[in-house]
Amino acid sequence: MKRYIDLSDIGPVRKARVGRDHPKWKMPTAEVYVEVPKNVARSSARGSPLTSFRDDSKQLRDPEKSVLQHKNATCVTPRVNAVTQKLFTQALRVAQLPADLVDVPLEVRKRRVHHTDPTSIEWDDTSMTIPNHYGRVVIDGERYSVGDIVIVEPGYDSDHRRARNASSHEARCHDNALADTKWFCQISYMFEVQGASHGRRKMFHARWLQHGSQTLLQEAAHSRGLFWLNACDDVPLECIFSHCNVCPWRSGEPAPLDDEAGDPNHFFIGPTWDSERVAFVKSSAAEDDCALRKCKVGKPCVSCGIAALEEEREEWRTLPDDTISCSGVVYHPHDFVYLHTPGQVIGLLAIVQILGFIPDESGAVSQVKIRHYGRYDTVAVKHSRDEGPIPRDNRRLFQTGVITAVPVKYITGKAYVAGLTSPWEKEAFVRDNDHFYCDLWSESLRPASLDELEVLSPKPGVLQCTICMSTAMEAMLERDRLFKMFGPLKGLELFAGAGGLSTGMEMSGIIQTKWAVEFSPAAARTFG
Ligand SMILES: [Zn+2]
Ligand SMILES: [Zn+2]
Question: Where is the BAH domain (predicted)?
């Protein structure tokens, strides 16, 4: 039994301001339709507070029309308005902030600017820490120190493609004149080099920052928000435009409202933008220290340190007792692994079993001897029987007689393959990602037809790495134990529509949608 409750019946909705739990914050009455799931409807019948709500669904002659033609303007908080006003042609209704919550504009320090043609760049010789490394420099009378955040003219780093991309980027920040025309960085250290044509050249190592409009946020970015990048370059000191006024933006605190006029040279710095992972990541002071310890003497740079740590993690190491490791994962003989061969851009990764490690002259493992396994679906897809298409099974593999050696760097993660035969065992095992089963055999990796696939002989069958297999089984048992103890996660879906997302989530078995909110009554009735 589904019901819709008009929340306007229960008066103004109280809502805490984002990031600040302030009881004074009030939103005007909103017209929101909520689908009440069966269990809540039942509990309301037993006398929960929900029984006091009036069920309006019978009184609405055409609820769909009523919702879509509602007279209330969309009402948003000032913060949402600041982000979205440039995205809509229609003005939004903005809830008023209580006077004591209005942000007071910060006083911005006026900064001297240079235009890549300073008349003097002088080292502060007293700041030389080690030969040829300086802590401070004076450019046309303005002092700059290691650790300062500065605004620079773009195009001075070694990556010219970056300069081109920046100037042609579609996302633009119209609210901050500096965001589109300048770059931002921190001075990590300063030094001097012998230039090809300029004589001695004064340089600094820059750890880059990116304006939010150049990240995933694009138009929705705060006009004063900068994010760290794990990228750095050596650039000449003459490209410095000015000091950058920055204030910290602590995790969990709201950003300043994006409606301040005034000096554009006023920014705050958020976490690190990782464009490869398409994520904003926060690194702790301890992690930054760890990265800095990887830097050479006199060249402290968090980005360089992180790159060194990554390189170290991705190195293949030969361990005692006939094992190798990479990125913290230890590989043993008989482990099943995915193989990523150079040039493979699309398609499923090959699955192979490690038969042994082949050391080079230095004793380090450089190659692995492997047995190839084929995917049943790649054979099944080419054939169809008279009675119709052959059912697919993307977890089914066939063992082959193909044995080769490949460079160890082609290995890219572990798979788990079991020689299971009973259907219930198979079903339980392949519930986990990276789990497969193998019950077939073919001499060739590319059999001409399904008829070439034979039933795999149980001896020797599929040999296992007992260490990895027991770890995988323990993880499965632990997950089952937790599932029995707590049941599936309970989900609330917002903007639910007809519930496609919930259907997918429920099919995973991990999440059970208990509540859903949808604006359109017709869509809500279709839900589930
Ligand atoms: Zn660096
Ligand atoms: Zn193993």
Answer: 142-284, 329-453
